[in-house]
Specification:
Length: 205
Amino acid sequence: MNCRTIRVFGMAAALLGSGIMVHTTAHAQDATQKAKATAAESTGAPSPSAEYSEMLKRLSEEVVSAAEAMPADKYGFAPTAGKFDGVRTFGSQVQHIAEANYFFFSGFGLSGAPDDAKLKALKSKDELVQALKDSFAFAQKGIDTITPQNAFTPVGEGKMKLSRAGWTTVCLSHSMDHYGQMVEYLRMNGIVPPASQKQAQGGGD
């Protein structure tokens, strides 16, 4: 997957802080997770899956609404005024988010992920918007597997090994990054993003 990997992981690290780093020994890790789970249960704190689910719900609604707001004949739009050589088109932004969402949760042991080649072959607005929605649903399935006990247990392999909480945070920060770009593309075409319209009308956060 071709993306700003270093920057995204830097953002994730800044968001998660030292808490996301796994312990070097399995015994220390297990003890820490059990202590956190016990503390959460005793204080009535919400589960990590509930917290992440709420964040994903809000973000996915903004991203999907932006994807739906751009007319189909503008899905090939990419900025040209300024230094924008080689940037993604609007449609490619939508496609990239969908691909990335599946990638980020690929180590969670989930079923139902589409073939990457099929995702890359999608072209029309309808196809891309549906793929985006499906990818966020897949991300939600991954979030549903997070518990206080396994939130910081590493998944994945090699350099791609990160905790479940870590991958979820990367997903959220990555989607927000590209949502910001989609917002600029919309405004360049005279379209106010739906989420911004709600805020202007007093209906947003």
